């Protein structure tokens, strides 16, 4: 066993054999990362997850996964994690923080640390896949869907940090095979953000904001991540990801309510209230030392009218073919919440 790494007890055997690939997943204890780790195991890939001290391993429990202790903010801790990995899937990051500088330390400089560790200790890596966010590109400004060639205009510290992470990664695109993915709002089993909307719907209440969004079910996002690793695209390519359909925010709440089987009270939330809640949350965050439930940056994102994107490039170049429309994804997600007794 490699020094500095350990293995979770294996009680699950992957479905396919014969693969000699070994892949590193950062953020593997999280929502999308844990689904990706499972998909890789199903393909017979040896999976290693970079895990920070104190992380909750519940989504990885019982899986034959190698655990590499480390932190993207500490480059020296990444050496053993990146060694002999064929692919690096970088999903680690923060969406909520007490101080804005934390976004940049983790999302931006943490990404560069990981790439530099690969260059120094695993220069023959086959592909580095960085899962960014549409927040890095910002909302639509001209009524058209956001495209990869459009100017990036992030409106929050989170979005700015993800864009900086992209820029720092792209600076090494001539040294390492690199692909950047920008998923829109990803939902599905284990997600806690869209869970809030399901919870309100179960109480027969549908709070909604004005605006239009693109969404992506988690298994479609995982499909795209795997395709990005296998693609022969030029290093540094960027791709938006969604299910290919745009939704009004009030329609999203309607779909969730129909899935649950209720007729909720529709409550539009004005912008001034969103920013008021954010200001109060940030004040309470300073007192508690915990990340706010809603920051002013998050409120600024919610206040934007159009968060849609064009996935033509991902479909054409990667062969991305989303399989889960919102109606189906919502059913699967709701059933999981019920099974886990979240609802």
What would the keywords be for this entry?
343 residues, alpha/beta, Rossmann fold, eight-stranded mixed sheet, four-stranded mixed sheet, 11 helices, 38% helix, disordered N terminus
Provide a compact summary of the structure.
The protein is 38% helix and 17% strand. The chain has eleven helices and 14 strands.
Would you identify the CATH architecture of the domain at 6-190 and 215-245 and 307-323?
3-Layer(aba) Sandwich
Count of β-strands: 14
The averaged pLDDT comes out at 92
Number of helices: 11
Q: Termini separation (Å)?
A: 42 Å
The arrangement of helices and strands along the chain is EEHEEHEHEHEEHEEHEEHEHHEHH
Categorize the overall geometry.
Answer: globular
CATH topology of the domain at 6-190 and 215-245 and 307-323: Rossmann fold
Can you say what the CATH homologous superfamily of the domain at 6-190 and 215-245 and 307-323 is?
Answer: NAD(P)-binding Rossmann-like Domain
Unreliable sequence segments: 1-18
Radius of gyration: 20 Å
Biggest sheet, spatial arrangement of strands: 1-4-3-2-5-6-7-11
Q: Based on helices, strands and strand pairing, what is the structural class?
A: alpha/beta
Give an overview of the whole structure.
By secondary structure, this protein is α/β, with parallel strands linked by helices. The protein contains eleven helices and 14 strands. Strands 1-4-3-2-5-6-7-11 form an eight-stranded mixed β-sheet, sandwiched between helices. Helix 1 packs across helix 6 and helix 3 runs parallel beside helix 4. The longest helix is centred in the N-terminal third of the chain and has 22 residues. The chain is globular and about 55 Å long. The N terminus is likely disordered.
